[in-house]
Amino acid sequence: MAAEGTAVAGGGAVGDRLAKDSLRQSQCPDAAPNRRRGSSLSRDAERRAYQCCREYLGGAWRRARPEELRVDPVRWEVRGQGSSSGLGTPSLRGPGARGEGAGGVMAAGQVQRPRPERALLWVCSGGLSNLLFRCSLPDHLPSVGKEPREVLLRLYGAILQGVDSLVLESVMFAILAERSLGPQLYGVFPEGRLEQYIPSRPLKTCELREPVLSAEIATKMARFHGMEMPFTKEPHWLFGTMERYLKQIQDLPPTDLPQMNLLEMYSLKDEMGNLRKLLDSTPSPVVFCHNDVQEGNILLLSEPENTDRLMLVDFEYSSYNYRGFDIGNHFCEWVYDYTHEEWPFYKAQPADYPTRGQQLHFIRHYLAEGKKGDTVSQEEQRKLEEDLLVEANRYALASHFFWGLWSILQASMSTIEFGYLVSNADGGAAGGQSRCLGTLGGGGTGGRGRLAQALSQVSFPRNMPSLGSSSTSSRKDS
Fold it and tell me: Is 456 exposed, middle or buried (0-12, 13-18, 19+ CB in 10 A)?
C-alpha cells in the first residue's frame, strides 16, 4: 500500500545486517551482470540469508549447509521491453520512489530495463529501499515435504514508510495469496518476508492493446474489484494521498528552477478542488482497487496451472478506491513506454491511448465478469457501457493529476536518472512526455503536460463527458 507515515521501518538482526552488508558490497553501478555467488554478497550476508530461509521454510532448507545455498541479488539490465523482472545489472531507486514499500514480484530470467520509479534495489545511492534476493536449494538435496525449492527474500532495509503500512501490506499479500490472486507468502518477519518465486515475465506496453490480453486484464481487474478485504471501506486514498503530496510540494525548499515552481504556475490546490468537484458529479462505485495496473505489474506466467495465465502483483498502492480510477489509470498506461535507451528514458505515444472501440472491448469483458449469472437488456447493457466510458475517462484525469504531483516530488528528491519534468524543448523523446507528466491528448507542454492535461480539462468541465480534445471516449475507432 502507499506509504502513509514517515517512520523508518526495518531493523531486525538478520535483515538489517544483510541489507547493510549488501549495500557495502555493491556501491559500483558498473558491476558486471549476473555475477555469481560470493562476488555480489559477502559470505556473512549469505549466512544470514540462509538463516532466514532455514527458520521460516524448514524441510530441506534445514538440511542444506550455508555454503550450498545459492543467494542471488535480483537486479536489472537495460535491454528489451517490459518493466518488472530481471536478473541483470543493478539499478537505483531513490527515496520516495513510486511504491516505497514493495515492488512487483520478479520473474525468472528476465533482463529488462526497469520502470525507473519502481526498481527494487540491491544497490542504492541516496536512500535504501527494498532488497530482493533469489534463494535456491542445491539440486542434489531432495525435498522433505512441500517446501519450495526457491523463494524470493525481500528485505525492507531502511524505508521511509510507516510500520503500520508494512503490516497492512503483509496482511493484504497473505489474503491475496490464499485466494490465488497473488504470489504465495512463505514467511513474514519484522525486516522482510519470503515470497513465492514465479517463472514469468511482465507484459510489454504494446501487449496491453492485444485484444485477448486486454480481455484477460479486464477480467482479472473485475475479480480484484469483487474482493472483500479487511480494510477501511472509505475511499480516502486518492485525495488523501494527493493532499499529502501537495503539502510535501509546499514544503519543498525554494529553487531557482522554473519547472519546480509548478505549485504556483498551475494553482494546484485550487485545481485539485476543481477536480474533486468534477469527480463528485461522476458516479463511481467504491471497490477494492489495485491502483497501479500497468504492464510491469501484470505477469504472464510461464507455467500456468490453468487457463488463468496472468497474475497481478505489486499491491503497495492497493486500497478501497473509486472503480473509475483503476480503469482510467490502466487506459493511461497504454501510452507510456519506459524502454527508451536515451534521455529522458521514456516515450509517450498519445495515439496509443485506447480508442472507443478498444475501451468498449475492455469494459464489456469487465462487466461480463462482474455480472455473471445476471441478465440485462441490450438497452441496459449499452447504458452500463456508456456510463463506464465516461466514468473511466473522467478518472483518467485524476490519474494524470495524481502522478503529476508524484512526479514533482520525484524531481526534487529522486536519485534516478529520469526526465520527470522534461519538456519538448529539453529534448523529450517522441513527444517529450514522462510517465507522470506526459501529455495524453495533443502536444504542447512535454514533461509537464500530463499535469497540464488534467488541469485543462478539470478547469473546463463543460467539455465532459467527451473530454474535449483528449484521446478518450470521444475518439472514433480506427
Answer: buried
Which cell numbers hold the place of 31?
A: 558491476
pLDDT tens by residue, 161-190: 556 777 788 889 899 988 888 889 999 888
Alpha-carbon distance of 449 to 434, in angstroms, equals: 8
What DSSP assignment string belongs to 260-313? G-HHHHTTHHHHHHHHHHHHHTS---EEEE-S---GGGEEEESS-SSS--EEE-
Rounded Cα–Cα distance for residues 97 and 410 (Å): 7
The total of other beta-carbon atoms located within 10 Å of residue 16's CB is 19
> With 0-12 CB in 10 A as exposed, 13-18 as middle and 19+ as buried, what is 151?
buried
DSSP string over 153-205: EEE--SEES-HHHHHHHHHHHHHHHHTTSS--EEEEETTEEEEE-B-EEEPPG
Q: Which amino acid is at 408?
A: I
Listing from the earlier edge strand, what are the strands of the sheet with 310-312? 200-202, 298-301, 310-312
pTM of the full structure:
0.73
- How many residues are there in the chain? 478
Q: How many CB atoms lie within 10 A of CB 145?
A: 7
Provide the pairing of β-strand 192-196 with 310-312. unpaired
Q: Which residue type occupies 27?
A: Q
SS3 341: coil
Strands 192-196, 150-155: pairing is antiparallel
> Which residues have CB under 8 Å from 229's CB, separation 6+?
172, 175, 288, 320
Q: Which amino acid is at 351?
A: A
Query: Could you tell me if 220 and 176 are in contact, meaning their C-beta atoms sit under 8 angstroms apart?
Result: no
Element housing 337 (H / E): strand 336-337
pLDDT digits (tens, 9 = 90+) for 303-343: 888 888 999 988 888 999 999 999 999 999 999 887 778 88
Residues 6+ apart with CB under 8 A from 347: 336, 337, 340, 429, 430, 431
Look up residue 196 and give its three cell numbers. 513465492
Domain ranges of the chain: 9-158+185-199, 205-463
Helix axes 449-458, 378-413, angle to 10 degrees: 130
**CATH topology agreement for domains 9-158+185-199 and 205-463:** no
pLDDT, tens digit, 9 for 90 and up, residues 52-88: 999 999 999 999 998 898 988 875 332 222 333 222 2
Whether residue 20 contacts residue 104, with contact meaning beta carbons closer than 8 Å, is answered with: no
9-158+185-199 has which fold?
Phosphorylase Kinase; domain 1 (3.30.200)
Q: Which CATH class is domain 205-463?
A: alpha beta
